[in-house]
Specification:
Blueprint lengths: L1 H15 L9 E7 L2 H13 L4 E2 L10 E5 L4 H9 L3 E7 L2 H7 L17 H14 L4 E8 L5 E7 L9 E6 L6 H16 L3 H9 L2 E4 L4 H9 L10 E2 L2 E2 L34 H13 L3 E9 L3 E4 L11 H19 L4 E4 H4 L7 H9 L3 E7 L14 H25 L1
Parallel strand pairs: 7-8, 7-11, 11-14, 12-13
Antiparallel strand pairs: 1-3, 1-4, 2-3, 5-6, 6-8, 9-10, 12-14
Helix pairs in contact: 6-13, 7-13, 10-13
This protein binds zinc ion.
Zinc ion binds next to loops.
Function: Involved in the digestion of the blood meal.
GO molecular function: metallocarboxypeptidase activity; zinc ion binding
Family: Belongs to the peptidase M14 family.
Length: about 425
């Protein structure tokens, strides 16, 4: 009762709240050429939270995409020109890209030619459980601060599948809409595809699939702010923790911010967030069944291996790199999309407290990857809906190879 009142209040708040607009906000790609320039950009990221860094600062000679509000453009360009930083304008009005995105109406049902609402995704998963009662079971893996359920499905074609399950998580970062779109498309293929490779993948493992983990944040991207990343827990005058910096394995060991207003705020304590705490509890109940944990993010076209807190290689790094490279090769076949494979620290930058690291660190789950899906920056988080199916197709190609390779290796032992 109490929960439903809270949800109702937030729902009304969501309807009444004004949508955040990004008129004439410009997206730049910067490339710092010296350590000094890199340091200046770090300071800028810390000190001016109205200027939004879309990726982590990786080092000199690595690009970073930055969204600048219209009223700050002159000041920003002057600042950048003061240092050795290459500057490229990628988009002159991000609001136009947001307006061009299509969000599906609930009444038209699930679609992969538009981005779906939270309600459409949940309704669709409910309908799968009805349509495939012997294969699909609805699961609730946790709760959110605003009292919503974190929903997913368990998919099992074969009751003899034991201890070979794979957990798939998407939209832990709210604005990365392509991730839940891809994951739901793959789930649909698992149920309907007649391709031999897909059938084998779907049927030889049990699947736990959670398309939207950060439910409050995702809903907020739909009602209020398309560019929201974090949870919606209030901390002082700001909201939200980065839920992929909040897990209790080497938490607070770099790549995070202690400022509650920052997009990478790690939270006051590990598992401070209802969604990470409750999901981790759920995972601990099925951990002994899992051979795989795959997290989906966007963007950058990367296939990442744990860990994010240290460059030290994880115990089965060589195996994960070998399988990852083969998976990336498969991914490239269909549309030529190129992925980089490697561990988080060496490929991007230090980023501690992720869900994948917590699973790997605690349970030594063998197949652990994080995808950073399309693209490499033209649209960034605002990938046009017409790219949903191509992105999903190539991603599924890579998953088929990934588990074919892993299963073949483990059978040899
Ligand atoms: Zn992300």
């Amino acid at each position: 009762m109490k929960t439903s009142i809270v949800v109702l209040i937030f729902a009304i708040g969501g309807i009444l709240a004004h949508k955040v607009r990004y008129d004439n906000h410009k997206l730049y790609r910067l490339n710092p050429k010296t350590n000094e320039a890199l340091e200046q950009l770090k300071q800028l990221e810390e000190n001016d939270l109205e200027i939004k860094f879309w990726n982590d600062l990786r080092g000199k000679n690595h690009f970073v995409d930055i969204l600048v509000p219209s009223e700050k453009i002159e000041e920003f360009e002057k600042f950048v020109r003061g240092f050795e930083i290459d500057l490229k304008l990628i988009n002159t009005n991000i609001q136009e890209v947001i307006d061009a995105e299509k969000t599906n109406k609930r009444s038209t049902g699930m679609s992969w030619t538009a981005y779906n609402s939270l309600e459409t995704i949940v309704d669709w998963m409910d309908s799968l459980a009805t349509e495939y009662p012997d294969k699909v079971t609805k699961i609730t893996v946790g709760k959110t601060y605003e009292g919503r359920d974190i929903n997913g499905v368990k998919l099992s074609f074969n009751s003899n599948n034991t201890n070979n399950a794979v957990f798939i998580e998407a939209n832990i970062h709210a604005r990365e809409w392509i991730t839940s779109a891809v994951v739901t498309w793959i789930l649909n293929e698992f149920l309907t595809s007649t391709d031999a490779g897909v059938r084998n993948l779907a049927e030889s493992h049990d699947w736990y699939i959670v398309p939207v983990l950060n439910v409050d944040g995702f809903q907020y991207t739909k009602t209020t702010d398309r560019m929201w990343r974090k949870t919606r827990t209030p901390y002082g005058k700001c909201y939200g923790v980065d839920p992929n910096r909040n897990w209790g394995y080497h938490w607070n060991e770099g790549g995070t911010s202690k400022n509650p207003c920052s997009d990478s705020y790690l939270g006051p304590a590990p598992f401070s967030e209802e969604c990470t705490r409750t999901t981790s509890k759920y995972l601990s109940t099925i951990a002994d069944k899992l051979i795989g944990y795959i997290g989906f993010h966007s963007y950058s076209q990367l296939l990442l291996i744990p860990y994010g807190h240290s460059p030290a290689h994880v115990e089965n790094y060589d195996q994960l790199e070998e399988i990852g490279l083969k998976a990336a090769k498969s991914l490239a076949k269909r549309y030529g999309t190129q992925y980089t494979v490697g561990n988080i620290v060496e490929t991007i930058y230090i980023a501690s407290g992720s869900s994948m690291d917590w699973v790997k660190g605690n349970y030594k789950t063998p197949v652990t990857y994080t995808y950073e899906l399309r693209d490499t920056g033209r649209y960034g988080f605002l990938l046009p809906a017409k790219q949903i199916i191509p992105t999903a197709e190539e991603t599924l190609d890579s998953l088929v190879t990934m588990f074919e390779e892993y299963d073949a290796q483990t059978k040899q032992i």
